[in-house]
Specification:
The chain has 793 residues and is mainly beta. The protein has five helices and 51 strands.
């Protein structure tokens, strides 16, 4: 492996052009305030970047004269002669006012907001965008833990922030809700290679600012898709790797036609066998957009979506199997008529999802602007499962006679379907002047989801003909919210922030579940979610903030199926300090999240691998987060992050051996007290970037009773990333070579799992039962690689 890496690096270096290059860097401000997310690019070469949260940018350009454009809701063009490394600071206060992409202005925050957040730019995504899902690309962000069912980052993946699971993270795409309305989760497998259409994303930890869709109980993730391009371009990206993984992507943009119209698109295909046995993935996806832009108007029509077929890998394995055969997958196992163990070849999950968005941003004058969006999502699919010795009546089938004996069971194959529609509108109106930044917005969304099951094959029994669903249930959900946000500059150093949201939810179900019992829900909620904070900036280098946020959130569908849940409540306190210097950017914050009736994971899973939750009474999360960018030289920098926390249920009560037991203060499940990450990057030559990425996750429990059986051991994983960009290559505008070696030291680790209990008869116990427990584990891949080449026209 070391020889391969050396040879690969040598080949990349040999492609190095002889042109002399220099570093151009600086800070972009508006008056005295740094501006984050400014697009900075050289017109002739197309070399570009965006400013970070402190307003800093860095470009590598060949020697000579360049025309630079700085664009962020306004635009400024400058010419610079570059014959040595140079610093160029830019003030956008007097820039020409033009329209830019501000679809997320209502749900995103900046350095001047008292919110804890991190950004991930398009450039950082491209470094490792070789087919793995967005959660995996985010894994090195502060206090983030990710996992993959198939073990290698393709297929079903998940993310936890501050110990809170995917259903506690609010996700919006262009300001439009993406979380599934019933499960509240996010399923990135339905959007294969979506990272190739992402301009940038922002992760707000904690409650964050008011947004649309499901309430944030651990984090908010706001994604902005590709912006329009002024110049025509195209690219072809291909990558291959371990476990027969490959990705093929084609992208194009017409550039602005007649200065107003642009059409762009992407088509992708990803396949992988997975690290776990038979945990294969077959993902197809697309992204298309049409844009109209003029001086004060920006309109986008976007459609994107995909289809996925993945072999089920959500069952996990026990500790004995983990020690002896960690890639074993029990999905689809059955015994044939000769007594041989076999695996059903179509034990798969199949789903298609199509999204349609119409976005309109209008600027009326230098103070007023608005956003209006309409959306519709159509999802449909099923998972197929082989059932051995299934009870016929449970599947709506009749018993039958064979040789004079009544037969009540049979091997069969069933499918469980979800066919859903999600549509609505979101809007915002923004006013800005020297002292005020005011946003009024909201949204109305409607969801209809049909759940039903069919038997498509029986070994012995007579099936219904035509196939009749053996269960049918429909969920209806209406979500409406209004919010008002205001930031007021009390003085040049102090700004106050206020955010008030009212959200109503109406959730109903009708019909029966797969088990045959009636499932009727008719629940309504009205939540008031206030937020307030202060920022203090004694100078341009230091920003201090404090905020309080109140959040309420409704239970998800599975919570109703497993009991009679109460809604969750959260008081979130955040206090932080941001330091910005040319060689050091430091973000540090303390948080205290006080929960009432938090729905925490019991550690158990249901029949489709979804985690079971229960109200835990009172609980809290208290932590310290630190992340930094340290520039040791022009060619060498490190980006460490560190989070230490205490995550506790207060007086946790659960059933054990037939009676309620108070376990006292216990660790919240899946909440490691120590999470750290680091990225060491070295730029030895122009266009060549070498990075070592490290992630440490401390030990954690999969139960809320701190059962030793449920403990996941700490792990430390390192990846090596190499990228070489060959500018102005023959026939191409740019050729990018990328290599990624994951888990370079072959760590055998488990990032996810589940804990379960069951009762057996015990006459010696006064209650007549004894509780036993067990655990399942999802092992992650050992050393594996991905390598790719991108051709840009």
């Amino acid at each position: 492996m070391k020889s391969l890496l050396f040879f690969t690096g040598l080949c990349f270096i040999s492609l190095q052009t002889l042109a002399q290059t220099h570093i151009l860097q600086g800070r972009v401000t508006r008056g005295e305030n740094p501006v984050e997310g400014v697009a900075v690019y050289a017109v002739e070469s197309g070399e570009g970047t965006t400013t970070d949260e402190k307003g800093w940018y860095t470009l590598k350009l060949v020697e000579g004269e360049h025309k630079l454009v700085f664009s962020y809701g306004n635009q400024k063009s400058l010419s610079v002669k570059l014959y040595q490394d140079k610093t160029l600071n830019v003030d956008l206060a007097d820039a020409e006012e033009v329209l830019d992409e501000v679809f997320l202005s209502s749900v995103r925050v900046t350095e001047l907001s008292p919110i804890t957040y991190s950004n991930l730019s398009n450039e950082e995504i491209e470094d490792r965008n070789l087919g793995q899902d967005i959660p995996v690309l985010m894994s090195y962000m502060p206090n983030v833990v990710t996992t993959s069912d198939a073990g290698a980052g393709v297929g079903y993946t998940g993310i936890r922030v501050r110990g809170s699971g995917p259903s506690s993270t609010n996700v919006t795409i262009n300001g439009i809700p993406y979380n599934d309305a019933e499960s509240l989760g996010t399923f990135w497998v339905n959007l294969g290679d979506f990272a190739s259409s992402v301009e940038n994303l922002q992760l707000q930890r904690g409650v964050g600012t008011s947004t649309n869709g499901a309430g944030a109980f651990g984090a908010s993730l706001n994604i902005l898709t590709d912006g329009y391009s002024k110049e025509a371009n195209a690219e072809i990206a291909n990558s291959v790797g371990s476990y027969n993984t490959y990705k093929h992507t084609i992208k194009f943009s017409t550039g602005l036609i007649e200065d107003h119209w642009e059409f762009a698109g992407r088509a992708s295909k990803i396949k992988s066998d997975g690290y776990i046995d038979r945990a294969s993935s077959d993902l197809k996806s697309y992204f298309l957009q049409g844009t109209y832009v003029d001086e004060n108007t920006l309109i986008k029509a976007i459609t994107f979506g995909g289809s996925e077929t993945t072999y089920q890998a959500w069952y996990g394995i026990d500790s004995t199997t983990l020690a002896n055969d960690r890639t074993y997958n029990p999905a689809g196992v059955y015994t044939d008529e000769e007594g041989n163990t076999r695996f059903y070849e179509n034990q798969t999950d199949n789903y298609k999802q199509d999204h349609y968005q119409l976005l309109w941003n209008q600027k009326y004058n230098k103070n007023w602007s608005s956003n209006l969006a309409f959306h519709y999502t159509y999802g449909r699919g099923y998972y197929e499962e082989y059932e051995e010795d299934a009870v016929l009546n449970e599947f709506g089938l009749e018993n039958f006679l064979a040789k004079g004996e009544e037969i009540t069971t049979s091997d069969l194959v069933g499918t469980k379907w979800l066919d859903n529609h999600f549509y609505g509108s979101v809007f915002s109106l923004n006013y800005q002047d020297t002292n005020w930044d005011i946003i009024f917005g909201g949204g109305w969304n409607r969801y209809i989801g049909d759940h039903f099951g069919e038997v498509i094959y029986t070994r012995f029994a007579r099936n219904n003909d035509p196939y009749q669903p053996y269960y049918e249930n429909t969920g209806f959900k209406t979500d409406f919210n209004l919010y008002g946000k205001a930031t007021y500059a009390i003085s040049e150093q102090i700004a106050a922030y206020l955010d008030l949201q009212v959200r109503t939810i109406d959730y109903e179900t009708e019909g029966i579940l797969a088990e045959g019992n009636e499932f009727l829900v008719d629940d309504q909620f009205t939540f008031f979610n206030p937020k307030a904070g202060l920022t203090y900036a004694p100078n341009n280098q230091n920003h201090f903030y404090f905020s309080y946020a109140r959040a309420n959130r409704e239970p998800r569908r599975s919570d109703y199926e497993n009991g009679n849940p109460e809604h969750e409540e959260l008081n979130d306190f955040e206090m932080g300090w941001r330091l910005s210097k040319p060689s050091l950017q430091l973000n540090t914050n303390i948080y205290y999240m006080d929960y009432q009736n938090q729905l925490v994971l019991t550690g158990g899973i249901d029949d489709v691998g979804a985690f079971i939750r229960e109200n835990s009474g009172n609980s809290y999360r208290l932590g310290l987060e630190i992340d930094a960018v340290i520039r040791l030289s022009e060619k060498f920098y490190i980006r460490p992050n560190f989070a230490i926390s205490r995550n506790k249920n207060v007086g946790f009560v659960s059933t054990r051996n037939g009676e309620l037991v108070n376990f006292g203060n216990t660790d919240i499940s899946f909440s490691p007290s120590l999470v750290g990450g680091n990225r060491i990057t070295y730029l030895p030559l122009n266009g060549l970037e070498l990075s070592l990425l490290s992630k440490y996750v401390g030990e954690q429990y999969m139960s809320n009773i701190e059962a030793e059986t449920s403990k996941l051991e700490a792990y430390f994983v390192n990846d090596f990333n190499i990228q070489y960009s060959w500018k102005n290559a023959p026939l191409f505008k740019e050729v990018v070579f990328t290599g990624l070696v994951n888990n370079i030291f072959g760590e055998e680790y488990v990032s996810n799992g589940y804990y379960y209990t069951f009762n057996i008869e015990n006459l010696e116990n006064p209650n007549g039962v004894q509780t036993l427990d067990g655990a399942g584990y999802y092992p992650q891949a050992t050393t594996n690689f991905l390598a790719g080449i991108t051709l840009k026209f």
